[in-house]
Amino acid sequence: MSKLWQARFFTTVNHLRDLPRTTVPEIAFAGRSNAGKSTAINILCNQKGLAFASKTPGRTQHINFFSIGGAHVAMHRHDPINMDELECLVADLPGYGYAEVSGDAKNHWQRLLGDYVQRRDQLAALILMMDARRPFTELDQQMIEWFAPTGKPIHCILTKADKLNRNESINVLRQAQAKLDSYVDEDGEGFPFTVQLFSALKRIGIEEATAKIEELAGLTGGDDAPTPDESEEA
Ligand SMILES: Nc1nc2c(ncn2[C@@H]2O[C@H](COP(=O)(O)OP(=O)(O)OP(=O)(O)O)[C@@H](O)[C@H]2O)c(=O)[nH]1
Ligand SMILES: [Mg+2]
Prior knowledge:
Blueprint: E1 8-13, E2 26-31, H1 37-44, E3 63-68, E4 88-92, H2 103-119, E5 123-131, H3 138-147, E6 154-159, H4 166-181, E7 193-197, H5 206-217
Parallel strand pairs: 2-4, 2-5, 5-6, 6-7
Antiparallel strand pairs: 1-3, 3-4
Magnesium ion is lined by residues 37-38, 59-60, 92, 95.
């Protein structure tokens, strides 16, 4: 059982000033609207209705935070989170690139997302979700360019891999890694950028993504069903 399975809804944020005043590492899921961010979060956290997933693009318009740690399995889901035991936050970022979003909303998105990924110290890594059939759109590249100067890792997840055959999958993965390797800093040094294939539908890449996220979030100790001692009030 992954620690990600403990995830619980934490808070929704629509302005940077409302970001949680926590110090634990954060892992943020970014990507185009409809890329499959919310679906992937639900699968990785093994909870159907945790992140809102929808057939209507552009549904996730705020930053939704989920907490890992501080909520024992034995507790009722509405019980408060023990903040001393909070280990990590997972952020579901609003999807970008949705054509029908008005100018004002687009600007709001740009500010919220750009500022968050560039300035949030607690942000440990970005999970960049891209449809495997059309990765690295302009806005995806914008996201990479915003985040690269922080020097922190980006793990790209190529979603909906069920839409590709075996050969296409191999090629897409190879091309994506080459694209990521083409990013270099002023000294010609590469960045800690990785990539994998994923399908919620066919359950491809779930273990790989789980291991990577746990590593990036510093969630060591892995398998952690609470012992009877831990789930009782001391
Ligand atoms: N075929 C296939 N469809 C998927 C997969 N993952 C998600 N989808 C579908 O893609 C659509 C969008 O999924 P969401 O998870 O809501 O996408 P999102 O990135 O959260 O979108 P926003 O909230 O708008 O940013 C839904 O209809 C999902 O059912 C997958 O692995 N394979
Ligand atoms: Mg969503």
